[in-house]
């Protein structure tokens, strides 16, 4: 997988159902030395907010599987990026 912003890809959920997802952005972390993919399945939560997901991915394409984020440090990195983007988006409204 070589995701680009706004590209679409398909994943299978735990029930084997295919779900189409859209790449929001990717980024590399100097702190964790990993690459992250942030995406959405364009569904909304109970408050009406867009559901957003993140996984580790291999930008070289050697491993096309998305890998789970398991460490709190990594989630903190992803959440910090999302918070910065949300704040920037609010400034432009």
Provide structural commentary.
The chain has 93 residues and is of the alpha+beta class. The chain contains one helix and four strands. It has one helix at residues 72-91; strands at 8-12, 18-29, 34-44, 50-57. It has a four-stranded antiparallel β-sheet, with no helix packed on it. β1 (8-12) and β2 form a beta hairpin. The chain is globular. The model has no long low-confidence stretch (mean pLDDT 88).
Topology of this protein?
Elements lengths: L7 E5 L5 E12 L4 E11 L5 E8 L14 H20 L2
Antiparallel strand pairs: 1-2, 2-3, 3-4
Structural class designation: alpha+beta
Mean pLDDT: 88
Name the helix and strand elements from N-terminus to C-terminus, one letter apiece: EEEEH
Total beta strands? 4
What's the Cα radius of gyration?
Answer: 14 Å
User: How helix-rich are the residues, as a percent range?
Assistant: 10-25%
Main sheet attributes: strand count, strand direction, barrel closure = 4 strands, antiparallel
Helix tally? 1
Percent strand equals 35-45%
Termini gap:
33 Å
Can you give me a brief rundown of this structure?
The protein contains 1 helix and 4 strands; from the N terminus they run ββββα.
Write out key terms for the chains shown:
4-stranded antiparallel sheet; 93 residues; 39% strand; 1 helix; alpha+beta; 4 strands; 22% helix
